[in-house]
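Hi V.,

Quick status before I head out on leave. The structure for the redesign project is tokenized and pasted below; the design run finished overnight.
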């Protein structure tokens, strides 16, 4: 999915509405997961960049440096991913309905 550009006030309203449905504990858990996902995305982007660089013409010293950084990023991904709780362990989020009916 491509990024959708919305005005800040719209994003803020959606965020406030979405987060108001959670208890403080659920909000804290949600922020933790969001932070971890953000870290995983950053590591993924770095891995893609390093792999792309390895396909270019590099000196041996540059190649060694990039391979070392790539290995560090892969280790970091495993460390962050192992720290994220499985989704099934989170409490289920009640579905929001507009007319009182559950829509599938």
């Amino acid at each position: 999915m491509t990024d959708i550009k919305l005005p800040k006030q719209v994003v803020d309203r959606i965020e406030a509405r979405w987060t108001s449905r959670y208890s403080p504990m659920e909000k804290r858990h949600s922020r933790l997961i969001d932070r971890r996902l953000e870290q995983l995305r950053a590591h993924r982007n770095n891995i893609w960049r390093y792999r792309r660089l390895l396909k270019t013409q590099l000196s041996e010293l540059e190649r060694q440096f990039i391979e070392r950084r790539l290995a560090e990023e892969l280790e970091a991904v495993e460390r962050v991913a192992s720290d994220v709780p499985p989704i099934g362990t989170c409490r289920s989020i009640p579905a929001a309905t507009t007319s009182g009916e559950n829509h599938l």
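Above is the designed sequence. DSSP finds three helices and no strands in the chain.

G. will cover questions while I'm gone.

Best,
W.
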